[in-house]
Amino acid sequence: MHELTIASSLIELASDHASRNGRGRVTGMHVRLGVMCGIARSLYFCFGPATRGTRCEGAKLHIEEVPLTIFCEHCAEARSPRSLSNLRCPDCGRPSRKVLSGREMELTHIELEDEAPHPVAQARQTLQ
Predict the structure, then answer these.
(1) Positions of the chain with pLDDT under 70
(2) pLDDT tens digits for 23-48?
(3) pTM for the model
(4) Helix-strand-coil percent breakdown of the chain, rounded to 5?
(5) How far apart, in whole angstroms, are the C-alpha atoms of residue 22 and residue 7?
(6) Measured distance CA(3)–CA(43) in Å, rounded
(7) How many CB atoms lie within 10 A of CB 73?
(8) How far apart are CA 53 and CA 80, in angstroms?
């Protein structure tokens, strides 16, 4: 399952970032995902189970879907085609070879929680 591999990679990146920055848990991840990837729903579905037993367990996945945009050389303009399978300019009908957006897959933001104090240290602070 391709989406599970992507979810695992996101979890690994976020967990490593939290560890390097001395933080406890990852509480959220923000991803920009182009509509041409076609995996947003599947990624949501497998993300939760993939986080089990990691610093990301319980984290929220926020996906910003990036629309498909092409560049029409004839019109010299960026355009949004009518469908993902037909990369033609909606105005002049000519095919385009240049996709400007819609293929992205980018982890843009990681929400972190501070490292929780050790229970013994917390008890000592309470007694003082």
Answers:
(1) 1, 115-128
(2) 889 999 999 999 999 999 999 999 99
(3) 0.78
(4) 35, 35, 30
(5) 22
(6) 5
(7) 14
(8) 41
